DNA sequence: GCCTATAATCTAGCGCTGTTAGTTTTTTGA
DNA sequence: TCAAAAAACTAACAGCGCTAGATTATAGGC
C-alpha cells in the first residue's frame, strides 16, 4: 500500500472535501487526519499537495471568493454595479459561513481577492472616482459585506425573555430576534447597502462639482 | 506546593494576562500552558477559574467591548451619537486587533455586547426610529465597524509591483498601499461612515414623512 | 525489456494542544 | 479541634500539525 496504481488525490478533490467538511461541521472539524480519512487516505499524504494547512485553507478561501460575480461592472453604472456586486459577494460568503472568519482576516495574496479588487477599482476610476477615493470605496464595501457575513447579529440572542428584562431595559423584545434571525440580518444588510450607496452618490456629486469632468 | 498561603490567581489577573498575551503575540500564542507560565502557575490551575478556554476568551472579549463608550446617546442626536459611538467602537477593537476575529463571530451572550445593543436600540427608538428599523441600524453599524476592524484592507498588498502588473491591469499602483495601510483604512472608514449616516438621515426623513410624529 | 528516477502513498513519531482525574496542602467555619 | 472546602499540583489522554524515512508503482531512456 505505498504508491497506488491510480492516483488517489488531486488539489481539486482535496479542496472540495475540505470545503464540504468545513461547511458541514465548522473550521475546527477540519484536521489533516479527519480530512484525509474523508478522502480514504492517511493524514500526511495531504502534504504532497499542500505545504501547510493554511495553504489548503487559502485554496478553499480562494474558491469561495472566486465565486463572486463581478461581470456587472462592465455593463452597469458604478452605483448599480456596486449594489449587484455586494449582493453576489454576500451570497458567496453566506454559502460558506464557516470559513468567513478565516477569509476575512485580510485579502492576503489570494488571486481571486486581488482579481476582484482589480475589477472594482478599475471600474470606479473609469466612472470618474479619484483613484484614492476609489480605493476607499472598495475597502469600505468589503468592510460592510464581510462584517455582515461574519456572524449573524440576531444569532446572539436567546429565546429566554427573562434574561433580558432584568438588566437590559430596552431589549425586552429581544428574544423575538432569535426566531427571525434571517430576516433581521437581511433587513439590516439591505438598509445599510441602500444608505451606503445613497451617501456615496451624494459624495460623488460633490466631488464632481469641485473638480469637474477630466 | 499545593495550596498556596496567598491566592495566586484571580479572574482579573488571568484576563489581563490573556489580553496582554493575545495583543503581543496573537490568538495562536494563547495556550493554557503558556498563559499559566506567564502567571507563574501550572496549566490546569486556570480551570479553577474558567471552565473552558472559550469561556476565558469570552471574558477577554467582554472586557474589550466593555471599553466602548455609549454615553453620547444620552446627550447627542441619534446621528451624531451614532458617529461618535462608531469611532469609540472601532477604537476599542483596534486596540486589540487580534481578538477581533473571535469577538466578531457573534455578540453571543456577552453582557457588554448586550448592554451596548440595549443602549443603542433604546436611543434609536426614543429618537423616532421604528423598532424594527432600529434593530437593523444597530446591526448594520456592527457589520461596518467589525468589518473594518477585522483585517486591514491594505495589509494584503505586497511591496513588489511586478506581482500586480502582469495579471491585474488596474492594480499597477497597488504596491503603494502597503506603505499607507493606516491612512487607507482610516480614509475608507471615514468615507463609509459619512455615507452611511447621510443615507440613514435620508431614510429617516422618508420614514417620518410617511408616518409622521407619534 | 530492463533499470533508474521520480511520484504518491505509507508508518512512526515529535512536541504541542485542551482537558480530566486525582492528590496535596492550606485555610476556613462549626 | 476537626471536617470541609479551596487552590494549587502532577500525571495522563487523545488529538493536533507536521517531519523523516521507508515503500512501492509508474514513467522515460537506452
TrEMBL record, chains A, B:
Name of this protein: TetR/AcrR family transcriptional regulator
Keyword Nucleus: no
InterPro entries, per database record: DNA-bd_HTH_TetR-type_CS (IPR023772), Homeodomain-like_sf (IPR009057), HTH-type_TetR-like_transc_reg (IPR050109), HTH_TetR (IPR001647), Repressor_TetR_C (IPR004111), Tet_transcr_reg_TetR (IPR003012), Tet_transcr_reg_TetR-rel_C_sf (IPR036271)
UniProt-listed Gene3D superfamilies: Tetracycline Repressor, domain 2 (1.10.357.10)
Domain HTH tetR-type: 8-68
Keyword Transcription regulation carried by entry: yes
Keywords: DNA-binding, Repressor, Transcription, Transcription regulation
DNA-binding stretch(es), residue numbering of this chain: 31-50
Amino acid at each position: 500500500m505505498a504508491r497506488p496504481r491510480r492516483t488517489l488525490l488531486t488539489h481539486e478533490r482535496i479542496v472540495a472535501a475540505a470545503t464540504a467538511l468545513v461547511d458541514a461541521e465548522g473550521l475546527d472539524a477540519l484536521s489533516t487526519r479527519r480530512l484525509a480519512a474523508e478522502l480514504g487516505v492517511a493524514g500526511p499524504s495531504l502534504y504532497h499537495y499542500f505545504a501547510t494547512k493554511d495553504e489548503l485553507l487559502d485554496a478553499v478561501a480562494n474558491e469561495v471568493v472566486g465565486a463572486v460575480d463581478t461581470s456587472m461592472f462592465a455593463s452597469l453604472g458604478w452605483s448599480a454595479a456596486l449594489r449587484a456586486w455586494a449582493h453576489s459577494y454576500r451570497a458567496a460568503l453566506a454559502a460558506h459561513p464557516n470559513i468567513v472568519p478565516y477569509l476575512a482576516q485580510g485579502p492576503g495574496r489570494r488571486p481571486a481577492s486581488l482579481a476582484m479588487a482589480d475589477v472594482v477599482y478599475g471600474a470606479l476610476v473609469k466612472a470618474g472616482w479619484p483613484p484614492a477615493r476609489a480605493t476607499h470605496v472598495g475597502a469600505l464595501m468589503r468592510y460592510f459585506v464581510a462584517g455582515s457575513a461574519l456572524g449573524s447579529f440576531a444569532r446572539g440572542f436567546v429565546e429566554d425573555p427573562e434574561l433580558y428584562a432584568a438588566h437590559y431595559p430596552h431589549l425586552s423584545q429581544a428574544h423575538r430576534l432569535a426566531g427571525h434571525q434571517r430576516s433581521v440580518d437581511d433587513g439590516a444588510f439591505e438598509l445599510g447597502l441602500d444608505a451606503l450607496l445613497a451617501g456615496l452618490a451624494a459624495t460623488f456629486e460633490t466631488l464632481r462639482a469641485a473638480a469637474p469632468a477630466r
